[in-house]
Design a protein that fits this description.
Blueprint lengths: L2 H22 L4 H18 L14 E4 L5 H11 L4 H4 L30 H14 L6 E6 L7 H11 L5 E7 L2 E2 L2 E2 H4 L5 H7 L3 E6 L3 H9 L9 E6 L22 H17 L1
Parallel strand pairs: 1-2, 2-3, 3-7, 6-7
Antiparallel strand pairs: 4-5
Helix pairs in contact: 1-2, 1-3, 1-10, 2-3, 2-9, 5-6
Length: 274
């Protein structure tokens, strides 16, 4: 896919995401929307996966460390063919295998996540296993920026450098908002780039709201440089729905019927113009 095709796919995923959250009755929609472009690029351009064989030994691995944004992952997995609409539509229903955080009962999900700060450690283990087994798969871990206050992340950062895991890519969804407000007011994390560079990681910044820049940044990763990789993805909380953008209260919430229809209308208009 080229950048325009991926942008279209992301908008289609965005529309489906809003439907999933609205029909399910709950969801962390603000963070879902901010990370959706990158997640779409991963599954439709960057990673090697096979929906018909989700456990393919040589598949690339994806760990959603910010597990509360699983609705975005459900939308992408459905679009990619890992799960069907009939399953996605059960979110929020009794006895559904879909929950508010990733679970391995869902095809395409590698690991249960949700307790923040643990995904990178799991990703380090996966990447180290690939090195030990002499396999070529890569591991991608998506973290939140509010999540950077968790100390276990930095233990994993040291291990990633120690074992020269150049097959590991961590992504920080840098939307500047967490459940209790702006990240710099709650627990300041800047300068992120300097911090991770000091840990020995290969650090790049990208515009996570722009598909062309996302594609260019992933393509520029050097998987032979003996360093783990960190991408700081500058994004907008609630991206693509005007009344949600950069509004902290949409960290978690469900739109009213009127808001729901407005969101779909805005997305449909962009799809029409692509």
């Amino acid at each position: 896919m080229n950048a325009k095709e991926l942008t279209l796919q992301a908008e289609q995923n965005r529309k489906r995401l809003v439907e999933i959250v609205y029909n399910g009755g709950a969801g962390h929609i603000g963070g879902d929307l901010s990370c959706l472009n990158v997640m779409t690029a991963l599954y439709f351009d960057v990673m090697k996966t096979d929906p018909k064989n989700p456990k393919l030994p040589e598949r690339d691995r994806f760990v959603l460390s910010k597990g509360h944004c699983v609705e975005a992952l459900y939308a992408v997995l459905e679009a990619k063919g890992f799960i069907g609409k009939e399953l996605t539509d059960t979110l929020g229903q009794f006895n559904s295998v879909l929950s508010g955080h990733p679970t391995i009962e869902v095809p395409g999900i590698e690991v249960n996540t949700g307790a923040l700060g643990h995904g990178l450690s799991i990703g380090v283990g996966m990447a180290l296993a690939a090195k030990m087994d002499k396999r070529n798969y890569k591991t991608f871990v998506m973290m939140g920026d509010g999540e950077q206050g968790e100390g276990s992340i930095y233990e994993a950062a040291m291990a990633g450098h120690q074992y020269k895991l150049d097959n590991l890519v961590a992504i920080i969804d840098r939307n500047h908002l967490q459940i209790s407000g702006n990240t710099e007011d709650v627990m300041a994390i800047e300068d992120i780039a300097a911090r991770w560079t000091a840990f020995g990681w290969d650090v790049k910044r990208m515009d996570g709201d722009d598909m062309e820049d996302i594609m260019k940044t992933f393509a520029a990763i050097d998987y032979t440089n003996h360093k783990p990789h960190l991408l700081i993805s500058n994004t907008t909380k609630g991206k693509g729905v005007s009344y949600m953008e950069n509004v902290a209260k949409w960290h978690h919430g469900m739109p009213s019927e009127e808001q729901y229809r407005q969101a779909l209308s805005e997305i449909d208009e962009r799809i029409k113009n692509l």
